[in-house]
Amino acid sequence: MRTDLPDAFIQFRHALHQFPEISGQEVETQKRIKAFVKQFNPDAIQEVGGTGLLLQYGLGEGGPVTLIRADTDALPIQEVNAFAHKSRIEGVSHKCGHDGHTAILARLASLLAVKPFRNGRVYLVFQPAEETGQGAEAVLNDPFFTSIQPDRVFALHNLPGYEQGVVVCRPGPFTASVLSMIVTFTGKVSHSAEPEKGLNPAYMMAEFMLRSRRLQQPDPQSDDFALITPVYTTMGEKSYGISAGYGEVHVTLRTRNAKRMEQLTTQLLDVLAELSTDSGIDVATRYTEAFFANENDPEAYEQIKRSAVKLGYPFVEKQEPFKWGEDFGLFTQHHKGAMFGMGNGENSPALHNDNYDFNDNLIEPAARLFLELIEIDHRPGVS
């Protein structure tokens, strides 16, 4: 097999798709990536963030340091596609295109191997656990990674619904701030014939959901954008002689930035405090799966735009951030950089749909765009 041809990377992507692993469990995925990219002779390979992998190209202590990141985890979704490379793991599949993102980074490694740069260092990060918001934190806190201080960080995400290959970006917020809130309501069970002798949280839970709905500003073009999505609720038991004494409500919150998220969570906590006063029901909250907004540095945005135009790729400046979260936002909180999107096809099923699949035609152009971004910093004067 000739590994300098894009077909090799399509086959690699299909192999990843057939054997997906969910967040934090990418053990075999890590091994598969490591075995494949070794042939591209990185100057160093290091395991990071548990099940992640870091490739280094260039040994120079001086000069710029650029980091490119791809995510590797899959989702707990049963695939319905019937193509030859369909998932062989029951209930798990690559429905966000992280297998494609990984293949792009592997292709970039092959390009760096045959076209070394003059100065500085480039790091390629195959990051686990993006879907839970824990992977970026694990990589950034890895003792090996803490010695790296990149001047620029870049990442991409494929975009269903956009023309194949179009590059989509914007300065400032690119993806939303996302936080999941879990609210527990602890009352007291009783006989369902005598609910007055217990404390049933049902109506408080319902009122909380109705009140939270009024706090929304669902228009993504608004600076006050705030979306509150109920994702799970539970209460009591399927025993019809018992009035429930315990319930949970889980919601996902989305805003443009961290400041607006803080305002929204404060508003929700105020609602809960008001509803629970003198009720006898104990209300507690906790948070999970936090995603910081991707804050695209204006200079990094311009680099992406110039590189796309130079390569002849169509370019679209998005007017408002995407509503979904991406944990690369934690990288842009610490380092200057940017995330961009590349169209997966106008008729592509949406992300996280059970019939979605990554468009293999993006592997080569996306890798070439990353290479151009590297060359801007690492090959001064090269046109």
Description:
- This protein is of the alpha/beta class and 383 residues long.
- The chain has two domains: 6-173 and 293-378, Zn peptidases (Aminopeptidase, 3-Layer(aba) Sandwich); 177-291, Alpha-Beta Plaits (2-Layer Sandwich).
- 30% of the residues lie in helices and 25% in strands.
- The chain contains nine helices and 16 strands.
- The strands form four sheets. It has an eight-stranded mixed sheet.
- Helix 1 packs antiparallel against helix 3 (98-114) and helix 3 (98-114) crosses helix 9.
- It is elongated.
- Mn(2+) binds at residues 96, 98, 131, 157, 352.
- Keywords: Hydrolase, Manganese, Metal-binding.
- Its cofactor is Mn(2+).
- This is Amidohydrolase.
- Pfam families: M20_dimer, Peptidase_M20.
Question: What's the pLDDT, averaged over the residues?
Answer: 95
Q: CATH superfamily assignment of the largest domain?
A: Zn peptidases
- Give the terminus-to-terminus CA distance: 33 Å
The structural domain count equals 2
* Cα shape: elongated
Q: Specify the helix fraction band.
A: 25-40%
Largest sheet: 8 strands, mixed
Q: What's the SSE pattern?
A: HHEEEHEHEEEEEHEEEHEEHEHEH
What is the top-level CATH class of the largest domain?
Answer: Alpha Beta
**Residue ranges: pLDDT <50 for 5 or more in a row?**
none
Beta-strand content bin: 25-35%
